[in-house]
């Protein structure tokens, strides 16, 4: 008789952090409108961060920002950029500083088409 396979339990890996570990911090995330970057943004917001999500599809960013803010109670600012155009990134940094006064964490998750 074969031994039963070991099943790895599903664990909420964010439970290892203090609830407010990112309180007062600001995340600047390219590609934050979808995929893994959206997930990382949500996790940081659940632990107290405010966020700026950046990408080319403003409608998606706006919807995502609304959903993340509602789910976490934190602020999420959507900013349309094209990372291939440095001027749009400079403008996004300026908007972030104007809104939150700082940038503490940067996630560069944008993929090129």
Automatic annotation (TrEMBL):
Keyword Oxidoreductase appears in the UniProt entry: yes
Keyword tags: NADP, Oxidoreductase
Cross-referenced Gene3D superfamilies: NAD(P)-binding Rossmann-like Domain
GO biological process: fatty acid catabolic process
Lineage top rank: taxon: Eukaryota
GO MF, any single term: 2,4-dienoyl-CoA reductase (NADPH) activity
E.C. code: 1.3.1.124
GO CC terms of this entry: peroxisome
Catalytic activities: a (2E,4E)-dienoyl-CoA + NADPH + H(+) = a 4,5-saturated-(3E)-enoyl-CoA + NADP(+); a (2E,4Z)-dienoyl-CoA + NADPH + H(+) = a 4,5-saturated-(3E)-enoyl-CoA + NADP(+)
PANTHER family listed in its UniProt record: PEROXISOMAL 2,4-DIENOYL-COA REDUCTASE, PEROXISOMAL 2,4-DIENOYL-COA REDUCTASE [(3E)-ENOYL-COA-PRODUCING]
Name listed for the protein in its UniProt record: 2,4-dienoyl-CoA reductase [(3E)-enoyl-CoA-producing]
Native source organism of the sequence: Agrocybe chaxingu
């Amino acid at each position: 008789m074969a031994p039963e396979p070991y099943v790895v339990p599903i664990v909420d890996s964010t439970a290892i952090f203090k609830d407010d570990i990112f309180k007062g911090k600001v995340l600047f995330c390219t590609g934050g409108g979808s995929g893994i970057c959206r997930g990382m943004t949500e996790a940081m917001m659940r632990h107290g961060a405010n966020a700026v999500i950046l990408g080319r599809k403003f409608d998606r960013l706006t919807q995502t920002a609304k959903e993340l803010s509602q789910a976490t109670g934190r602020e999420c600012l959507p900013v349309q950029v094209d990372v291939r155009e440095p001027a749009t990134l400079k403008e996004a940094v300026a908007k972030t500083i104007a809104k939150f006064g700082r940038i503490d964490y940067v996630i560069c998750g944008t993929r090129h088409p």
